Structures are given as structure tokens and as C-alpha cells.
Amino acid sequence: MSPSDATDLPARPDRMFDRAEAWADLVRFAREPGPGPTLALVSGQRRQGKTFLLEAVGRATDGFYFDGQAAAEAESLRRLAERLAEHTGAARPPHWHRWDEAVEAMFALGDERPAPVIIDDFPDLVGHSPALPAVLHGAYLRVRRERPDNRLRLILSGASPAVIRRLFAGPSSLHAVASLELAVPPFGFRKAARFWGIRAPRLAVQVHAVVGGTPAYRGDLVCDDVPAGPDDFDSWVCRTVLNPRVPLFWEARHLLEQEGDYADRALCHSVLVAIAGGRSTPGGIADRLGASLHDVSHVLAVMHKHGLLHAEPDAFRPGLTRYRIAEPLLAFEHAIAWPHRAALEQEDPASVWHRIRPEFDATVAAPHFAQLCRDWATQYAAWDTFGGEVSTAVRGTVPDPAGDARLDAEVVVRGIADGRPGVLLSVGLARFGEVMDAPHLERLRRLLALLTAAGEDTGQAVPACYSGVGFGPELRAAEAKGEVLLVGADRLYHGE
């Protein structure tokens, strides 16, 4: 099906927010009329709407949908047989003893027409049937060779893309024969604000710092309880994420359990608390915990592999890796809820929140705002904003020889300018709860001077200030002279 046939696609369900591209890609794949079996791999962490999307695609294309579950092999085969009999209208379900029998029955659906077969949460099946990927791979190659007109459209879904790739690696690599690989990520911060119906940019930052862009957190876990406005944020936090009677209160503690088998969960939680508290390097985390660098590095590698952490090089010290928590709710949990869990379970949440609100502003909202600024630079800033094509935006640290302190820049932008990659386009400071003015520009000038002295090409570097509450008159005057770039919360959500 060509792109010009897009108007012939079935409409997305009314309840489906966004996901237009994913919907179109999957429906086109499922309805592809050409000969030969094909395979699509769909990844997405839990609660992103992946199952809702796949079920809807199955209904729209008259496909067979099966939800994989962690169960004994015989139980999974029985469930699959029952569901397939319902789909085909068979008088009774078949009785399979091995996966190769079940796989052959699914492939047979494609002998007469394009037949979508969707297996959701495929890794859960593999956990109790480790040979299943090899069985599918062998059947795929055999059917493609012996029945070239077969038109099975097999869609396998799992968790993160990294998990999918590891699952299908090796000599029986399904990944190598896939014709479509699609990720269902959380909503970006702008889409998340629209999804929650939040128009005030500063409130949108605060809510995103708690729940991120995971769609199920609004519907399934807080029953569509949305802050009524900026003045309702504190009350909303108390009646949702800090309320033991609301499912969102318990969600973060389940995330580690859902993402693999960890040898030392206590150390995992401690590492997350350290990162949420501002320690971002392996050495800094180990020092905070009093643990060995070897043990901490191992835990960091495991959580990074499972998509719980992002690892990024320092902008000015490439050998230094910084870690940040990928899921905002997990960061909120370990910065705010985890250290105060006993008080939250025994006292009125409002009184506890009143005491710890400054911690939220400093350790959750402020660094999250800085990350949104980096996302804005890479995703939304116009070409002429930085005078080049943005490639990366990360944190950077420069030692200050005038003292023992260091100078941090929260938004260091590099990109392509005049055909040269890796050019330093901008160095910026981000302050969520602070009105920025002349001292911040002076700090940036000092930082740029140190970089120049260290041999960095700063000729095209634009000083930038990012603020969640605004800018003072001297900084506005400097902006008018073209001396600094100013990005407020409104521009973050609506401008380039």
C-alpha cells in the first residue's frame, strides 16, 4: 500500500489520542497485499497505550490478537488454541503439545489472504518457552521458501527496543527478517500537556515532572483527576501521587519489578535515590552510598540496559558519563516519596507535602525543567535560533581555576554549522524557580571565556538563559542587543 492510499485507512478510534503515524504504519503493514510472510516488531514500555493500539489494529484489519502472559508452556498453548478457535469459528480448539504446531496453525491463516496475527507481550511467552523465537524463525524461513504466496502479517510486541533486540539476537534472529520496527514511546512534553488538557506552561512542567508522558497515568491510575489550574497543583499531588488510596501512589515501586530480575533490588533503589538527589556520575553515586564503584557500575549498567536510566556524556568531558532516571514518576518516587514513605502512610499527605515541597522544587522540578529545555533545543528550536542544525543538547561542567568550584551549564547545544559537525552552538543556564538577570549572563560569559582558554571554539556559541518564571530588565535589554537568547516556559511549549 502506497502513502497515497492513506485516505483509505480505517479511522483511528475516537479514544486514541495521537499515535497517528504508528496507527498508519501498522494498518498498512497488516493490509499489505503482496506475497510472502512479513514480520513487524513493536516495542513500548508498559502503560504507553501499546496494547490498546494493537487491539484496535487487530479489530480494524480483522486480525487475530493474542495477549501473551507469563504462564507455563502448556497453559499458554491452551489459551492460544482457545482464542484461535474463537477467531476462526472452529467447533473446538485444537490440542497442541508443542509450539511448532501452534506456529504452523498461525502461519496457515495467511495461505488465503493477508492475515494479521498480533502477539502482544511476546517476551512473557518466551520466559517459559525460550525456544519460541527459534521456532518462529524456522517457520518463517520455511513458509517463505515453500509457500511464497503465504501472506501472514505477524506482529510481535514487547517492552523496550533494547529488550526486543536482545530477545531476537543470535543465529535465529527474527530481528534480521523484520520489515517494520516501531516504538510506542511516552508522549513528548508538548503532547503530554495537550493530553492532560493543561494550558499553563509552568503547571505543565510541574505535572510532567511527576507523571511524564505516560498516558495511562491519567486515565487508569488517577481516574482523569487533572489539576484545575496552577493553584490546584499542590492539592492534586496530595490527592493522587501521595495518596495511598490511589493506584498512582503504588505504581513507581512496581516499575523495577516489571523490568527484569535484579540481583540486588535494595542497591537499585539506593542508586535511584542517589541519582534523584543530584548524584549523576558512577563515582559520585558510589561515594554517596558508601558502596564499591564496581557494584554501583554493575547496577547502573543493568538499569540502563532495561531502559530505566539514560546515560549521557558530559558536554565538555566526553569520558565522564552522567546518568538520569528515564521515567519521571520513578524520579519523583525516589526523590520525594521513597525517603518520606513512612510519614506519608501515617500522616495527612497535605502536611507532609507542605514540609517537603521545597525538596520537590529543587530536586525534581528544577532538573526536570532543565531536561525539557534540552528536549526543546533538539526537537523544537528553529534553525536560526542557534544558527545551525542541532544534534545534541546535554549538561556540561567546566572547572574554574579561580577557585575549587565548577561551573555547570544545563543546556549545552552542539550541531552542524557551515557544514562542520560538533560545533558548539550554545551554552545555557536553566532555572525553573528563579527570575534570571544580569548575574546569570555574567556567569555564562565567564564559562565561555574558560572554554575559549581551554581551546574550545566558541565563536558561534550563543549564551542562553532558560527560566520558568521570567527574566529581569537587564537581561531583557541584553536580549534586545542580541547578546543572549531567552527561553521562558511559554516559548518552551509554544515557540521555536
Describe the structure.
This protein has 22 helices and twelve strands. It is an alpha/beta fold and 496 residues long. It has three domains: 3-183, 3-Layer(aba) Sandwich (Rossmann fold), CATH 3.40.50; 190-368, Orthogonal Bundle (Arc Repressor Mutant, subunit A); 380-494, 3-Layer(aba) Sandwich (Trna Endonuclease, Chain: A, domain 1), CATH 3.40.1350. The strands form three sheets. It has a five-stranded parallel β-sheet, sandwiched between helices. A five-stranded mixed β-sheet has the order 8-9-10-11-12, with helices on both faces. Helix 20 links the parallel strand 10 (420-431) and strand 11. The two termini are 35 Å apart. This is GTP-binding protein.
Write the layout of secondary structure elements.
Layout: H1 20-31, E1 38-43, H2 50-60, E2 64-67, H3 73-88, H4 99-108, E3 115-120, H5 122-128, H6 132-146, E4 152-158, H7 161-167, E5 180-183, H8 189-196, H9 201-211, H10 216-219, H11 233-239, H12 248-258, H13 265-276, H14 282-289, H15 293-305, E6 309-313, E7 321-325, H16 328-337, H17 341-346, H18 349-379, H19 383-386, E8 389-399, E9 406-417, E10 420-431, H20 438-453, E11 462-467, H21 473-480, E12 485-488, H22 489-494
Parallel strand pairs: 1-4, 1-5, 2-3, 3-4, 10-11, 11-12
Antiparallel strand pairs: 6-7, 8-9, 9-10
